[in-house]
UniProtKB/TrEMBL annotation:
Residue intervals passing through the bilayer: 16-39, 51-71, 77-95, 116-141, 147-172
Keyword entries, A-Z: Membrane, Transmembrane, Transmembrane helix
Keyword Nucleotidyltransferase attributed: no
Keyword Membrane in record: yes
Stated name of the protein: QueT transporter
Organism field: Clostridium facile
Highest taxon, organism lineage: Bacteria
């Protein structure tokens, strides 16, 4: 029998650290665009969520959650609600990957209208889950928070940027740079493993 090839641990760690760095480079410059001090701001970095999920899976999800937490620490925005934010951001990225393959059952692509509509639906579903989790976490820490502004900002951050920025970036990644999504890479690895000589 053959064994599925696994990515070396060192490469996984290197990829994780690289993704965290990308998150930091995109998130910190926008930390001045505050909506509710200490709790939420305008975050173009959320465009990376679907990219990290669809192209890097669990590694991308953890990298985004850790990057978000480090960003909060460096911008003096660390609160108890960041625990909810860490979990919600991790789940959002995982959900995008999982929901795509539950709904479309194929490699990621935005080449036709059905794929793009499915992508939008997935972003909306994931954003609702994330918004509920983070809003509850913030409200539990500071009940006097402007809940309408908080919910609106979180939901818009996690729908608008993944759609208007995330989608074009992924199209360029695939069409111009020929980068493979995680599902396709895994299929290629499985195919290569099946074609390799059987171990005795």
């Amino acid at each position: 029998m053959t064994q599925t090839q696994k990515t070396p641990l060192g490469r996984k760690i290197g990829r994780f650290l690289f993704l965290v760095l990308i998150h930091m480079l995109l998130s910190l410059p926008f930390k001045v665009m505050i909506m509710i001090p200490g709790f939420t701001d305008i975050r173009p970095v959320t465009c990376l969520q679907p990219i990290f999920g669809l192209f890097f899976g669990q590694t991308g999800a953890l990298a985004f959650a850790v990057g978000n937490l480090i960003s909060d620490v460096l911008s003096d925005s660390l609160q108890w609600s960041c625990i909810a934010g860490f979990i919600a951001n991790y789940l959002y990225v995982v959900m995008v990957y999982k929901l795509w393959h539950m709904i479309r059952k194929k490699a990621f692509s935005l080449r036709d209208s059905h794929d793009f509509l499915a992508y939008i639906a997935i972003i909306l579903i994931s954003a609702v889950v994330l918004t509920v989790m983070i809003s509850f976490g913030v409200y539990a820490v500071q009940p006097e928070v402007d809940l309408v502004t908080l919910i609106g900002t979180i939901f818009c951050n996690n729908t608008i940027f993944p759609i208007i920025l995330g989608a074009p970036i992924m199209i360029i990644m695939q069409e111009e740079f020929h980068l493979l999504d995680l599902w396709t890479r895994r299929k290629k690895e499985e195919s290569a493993d099946e074609d390799s000589p059987a171990e005795k």
